[in-house]
What does this fold into?
Amino acid sequence: MTPKIRIICAFATYIGIIPISSIILSLVEPGLTFLRAFEFCVETSTFSVTGAVFPLTPLGKTVTIVLRFATLGTLSVIGYSALQHSLFQRVDRIAKEQIKNIRKKPINLFLSYRRSDTSGYSGRIYDRLSSFFGSEHVFMDLDKIVGGENFQTTINKYLDSCDAIVVIIGKNWIGNLNNEVRIQKKNDFVRYEIAKAIEKRISIFPVLVNSAQLPPVENIPPEISSLLNLQAIELTDSRWNYDVQKLIDAIENVRKRLI
It folds into this structure.
């Protein structure tokens, strides 16, 4: 092969990187293996061209080094893009498979919260849990209780069928209202929901939002004081998705034990 033909072949190889890389990206993981073989071919042609045009000269060595770094740089960008694309696809595939498996063996969840305390946060938590476990398996009173239904009867029905209860605790969870602590009242629904879950030995997940902390034991009725012995999961605004994922993982561990 003459030096002129070698130069044409080398430039054709470089020019072909862009369309070839788009094909490689569509292949994802098999494409990464092809990239390594492609890199070898390009470097081989690079040495061949520079060796034919500038044999054993300083300029020839310089051109070889420049072309090598240009090739490696271009292929590194392509490789990184392919790897990133592959990782996103893999994470998405794993998440879809996980949700599919969950829907086959679902877990029924009950959200316990005080509207005056955490209604905004509770809605966000409900949306995330519903998208993961299925809205038909997550109970939230505002969403599930329709007009005309008996509130306590409906809550009892869902508590009897739930596998886990998520207790969402904000700064005013005990319910200070008109110098009264609502959690101390026997007819308080939050107290009733937790007491029922403890009685039925339902898994309980205390969740702290809005920088709240678990209340002192003296402010909690004895029948639900065991709630304070459970490890709470804190959901922060700065890392909301990460913290909610920890809650989902904890619930998923319970679901697996129930299978």
User: Anything to note?
Assistant: Residues 48-54 have pLDDT under 50 and may be disordered. Residues 11 and 78 are 18 Å apart (CA to CA). The first strand starts at residue 109 and ends at 112. The two ends are 68 Å apart (CA to CA).
